[in-house]
Specification:
Length: 205
């Protein structure tokens, strides 16, 4: 992995626009959503959902199962952190967009004499279309903080996805943050799931 210009974990300058990383993950999918974030058109506060308490209980159960499984592996665990707080920022010219976030579980391991970071994202329901982008963003933040290889695992009750963070992942993220091709655009299926739907004038529902 190498460090890319335009990505930072230092986000305290006065002209920084802040958002939540989950929203930034949704913005990877739509040409309009990322513009809302660059222009500061979304609130930083986490919205509440009617089923939040029920989802939180299942989320905690899945996290407990994941932690038991990982800690039984034949690997030297140096530390484990739950809800690890971090920031990830992007710059275009003088503009800066920073995402605040928490990673569900972050392990630091000694693998073959080298430090390795394992980041586990837990979903209490089906893995939605934005979740892999959200996981990539958090993994990039961890890499820039630690400068060690980062493994990503997304775990839900019905599916597990995993990969090792690569240089091409940074390139894909930067391309989409800067307004490059590859995003679907508004559609009823995407907009009905998107966490930006209440703030977006381009939504199609």
């Amino acid at each position: 992995m190498y460090l890319r210009a335009g990505i930072t974990t230092s986000c305290r300058s006065g002209d920084t626009r802040y958002t939540r990383l989950n929203l930034l993950g949704w913005a990877m999918l739509c040409p309009h959503a990322v513009e809302l974030l660059w222009h500061g058109s979304t609130p930083l506060a986490q919205p509440g959902y009617p089923t939040a308490d029920e989802s939180r209980k299942l989320h905690s159960m899945v996290m407990g199962s994941v932690m038991s499984a990982v800690e039984s592996l034949d690997a030297r665990l140096l530390s484990v952190e739950r809800e690890y707080q971090h920031t990830l920022g992007f710059t275009i010219g003088d503009a800066r967009l920073c995402a605040l976030s928490k990673a569900d579980i972050v392990y630091t391991m000694n693998v073959g004499g080298r430090l390795f970071t394992l980041y586990v994202e837990v979903s209490s329901a089906r893995i939605n279309v934005a979740k892999p982008w959200q996981a990539l963003l958090r993994a990039i933040a961890l890499y820039y903080e630690r400068r060690t290889p980062v493994g990503i695992a997304i775990v839900s009750p019905g599916k597990i996805m995993y990969k090792l963070l690569e240089d091409k992942d940074q390139d894909k993220v930067l391309e989409r943050i800067r307004g490059g091709p590859g995003r679907r655009g508004p559609s009823p299926d995407l907009c009905s799931l998107c966490e930006l739907q209440h703030y977006c004038p381009y939504r199609v529902i």
